[in-house]
Amino acid sequence: MLRGWEWPARAMAEDTNRETELKLAVRPEDLGRLRGAPVLKERGKGKAVTRQLESTYFDTPDLRLARRRVTLRVRRQGAQYIQTVKGAVADDGGLSRDEWEWPVPGPAPDLSVITEPAALQQLGTLAASDLEPVFASHIRRTVRILNGASSTIELAIDEGEIRTMAGAVQPVAELELELMGDGDPADLFAVALELAKVAPLRVEVRTKAARGYALASGEADGPVKAEKLALDPSVTVEGALCRIVRSCLNHLAANEACSLKGADPEGIHQMRVALRRLRSALALFRPFVPPEQYDWLVGEVKWLGGHLGPARDWDVFLTELHAPVRDAFEKAGEHGAAQVGELHALEHAAEARRQRAYQGAREAILSARYGAFQLELTAWLEGRRWRGQPVNEQSARLFEPVDTLAGDLLAKRHRKARKAGKGFAALSVDDRHQLRIALKKLRYAAEFFRPLYADKAARRYIQQLAGFQDALGHLNDVATATRLLRDLHDDGSPAAPGERRAAGIVIGWLARGMVDAEPSLVAQWESFEDAKPFWTGGVRR
User: Fold this and answer.
1) Whole-model pTM?
2) Burial level of 408, CB count in 10 A (0-12/13-18/19+)?
3) CA R_g for the chain
4) Which uninterrupted H or E stretch holds 161?
5) Mind listing the pLDDT tens digit for each residue in 102-127?
6) What's the gap between Cα 155 and its chain centre?
7) How far is CA 197 from the centre of its chain?
8) Could you tell me what percentage of the chain is helix, strand and coil, using 3-state DSSP and rounding each to the nearest 5?
9) Distance between CA 166 and CA 215 in Å, rounded?
10) Is residue 387 domain-shared with residue 530, that is, in the same domain?
């Protein structure tokens, strides 16, 4: 224990133009049950008020505001029009963001009423003539005022749609919990967890504006890759933990819609990448997290990964492993005709298993357990719950600048990868799998801390690492395919004629490919061994 030292108090925002809000996605069919939730009767103040909100969002033709993550809208409330500017979410990705409102005479923006310097800075050098409507939201909102333990909370139940100027539509069904005035964000999560007992809820990381822009660009419900982190050397270790873990959580949530839709395999893939990034991040900061918290978090990540994994495995088999073999025999014409029929039978059986796996993934994403995990993890971040441990030499490092730790963490991951790959040419398949895992952890750590270092050197190192990791990943895919084909009919379904022969063809084809790839793999390992770690040059200043 450090004598005379305490956990620092969290800074509370004093800016009255700042909203603190928790958004929750809900299934439309559950809205009625949520309106009657016991927590609303127990904590409610006054009667619920329902009104229709018609909001139009404006931007320049080149979407200048969207690129800066600034929102400008005009909302009609009865006979009134309210113009709102919302700033970008803070770098730590928390629940708060800047917001300013002004009454305006009509449905068009009026920039002349904006006098606050901070709001003008968000908008930049815009003129009203630069703006045009991009999309609108049509929402039926029911509002209840609730008493939190130490806060007053506004609960909004929203149902409606977002519609672009071209007529594209996306339904909206969500809850918004917002602190009214000063208050404790923990109260938002307490209410949310009570609501989650009535119906499954998921943290909604996308604002209506973000969904509207995606709909207008034709990218609604599409896969989303992880965004580049914003870190600088002055950020504390604790600040880096918050930003990195929240980035992983946002990446996970942003791909739910695509995964539920099931039309693009990249959705499930990105959710699994987000889970692997999250697990790697937790492992990086494990020395600063109480063991019981760490074990619970990792346990939930494993649980979800176990439900998403089969869907991804069948996606990879059908699109990356089976398809090239089938295409090769189809191009062979009459010489491969018999095999083509058998390969199509195998494909049909594999597709049936993929659909079953996707149903399992959907059930997990829509489950109460997943929603509770999201809420608890977000509350863990917002409340800095790792501070519930005694202050000691190790935990005190949370408040050092992250640049004092990043290099050590990267070097540790680098050493483990080099040790795992020693004698690469003679390594077994299992040993190479362990090397791939070590390289993956190194790569995610490098990506997390990349903003702290010179970009060119970091980018080159990560690209080389990714290429080698992907090449080793193919070995794992082949091993997974062998297992999938062995268990293809473990549910008792009958195998089509020639299906097992087709499975042998695919496995043989893949095994030959592994032999052909060996010289390249050895060369990539040697190149990695010779690579200069980008962090040895120190952080950028």
Assistant:
1) 0.90
2) exposed
3) 26
4) strand 152-164
5) 999 999 999 999 999 999 999 988 88
6) 25
7) 24
8) 55, 15, 25
9) 10
10) yes
